[in-house]
Amino acid sequence: MTMFNRHPDPRSGLVIDTHELGRRVGAMKEIQRVAEAPEGIGMDVIGVPPGSPVDLDLRLESVVEGVLVTGTAEVSLQGQCARCLERIDSAEEVDLQELYLYPDKEPDDDEASRIEDELIDLEPLLRDTVVLDLPYTPVCRPDCAGLCPECGANLNADPDHAHDDRVDPRWAGLSGWAADPDDDNEQASQQAESKE
Fold first, then answer.
1. Would 91 be classed as within a structural domain?
2. 83 in the Ramachandran plot: left (φ > 0), alpha (ψ -120 to 50) or beta?
3. Residue 66 maps to a domain
4. Does an H or E element contain 71, and which?
5. Which residues contact 54 (CB under 8 A, 6 or more apart)?
6. Rounded to 5°, angle at Cα 48 from 56 and 138
7. Structural domain count, the chain
8. How far is Cα 91 from Cα 70, in angstroms, rounded to an integer?
9. pLDDT tens figures, 75-96
10. Closest C-alpha among 39, 38, 72, 44 to residue 138
11. Is 175 exposed, middle or buried (0-12, 13-18, 19+ CB in 10 A)?
12. Which pLDDT belongs to residue 2?
């Protein structure tokens, strides 16, 4: 889990107030909301546009150690196809699950997600979950043909695209030479005579 040294901002749509749950084990709360995506969720070739909507459908359950958050987040993705360089626009739904510990629980676990001032910050969880779910090599479609290695033409737009066979420059001097079939017959008869 990526940890940020910052206090949760209660104005953020990704910060949830757990005050209603208290510390009553078994208490539950369901939340559906749309939040704005923060900066920097993704990689260079694909990611979540900052400010785009994040649809959250969550369930918060109070347990002995803290609050268990489960649910889904639907995000928009924008990027570039790794084969043909066309723009990719899609949506992705990711499953979220994290236990947020009360401040006094397991104090030695520095990596644990924690409730701070009765607030849960979902941004680190969302960031890690989405980034891990992103394709390493995004493509616009599974059968993307990519670009022509010689001229860069998009082979999806022109599947019949082709170039004439290139001649290796070392053999270019022989390109005009054509064998004469009569020469082959003459060579064969000369070889036959020499054997006699």
1. yes
2. alpha
3. yes
4. strand 66-80
5. 13, 14, 34, 35, 36, 37, 48, 73, 74, 75, 126
6. 120
7. 1
8. 20
9. 999 999 999 999 999 999 999 9
10. 44
11. exposed
12. 44
In whole angstroms, give the CA distance from residue 142 to residue 120. Answer: 38
Amino acid identity, residue 46? I
Supply the pLDDT for residue 3: 45
Q: Is residue 90 part of a domain?
A: yes
Residue 61 located in a structural domain? yes
* Dihedral (CA of 130, 106, 11, 9) sign: negative
Q: Give the range of the structural domain holding residue 91, as residue numbers without chain letter.
A: 15-133
- Are 69 and 139 contacting, i.e. CB atoms less than 8 angstroms apart? no
Give, rounded to a whole angstrom, the gap between the first and last alpha carbons of the chain.
89
Q: What's the pLDDT tens digit per position in 151-168?
A: 888 888 888 888 877 767
More confident residue, 109 or 190: 109
Specify the DSSP element, H or E, that contains 60.
Answer: strand 53-62
Q: How many residues does the chain have?
A: 196
pLDDT grade for 132, boundaries at 50, 70 and 90: very high
Q: Is 123 exposed, middle or buried (0-12, 13-18, 19+ CB in 10 A)?
A: buried
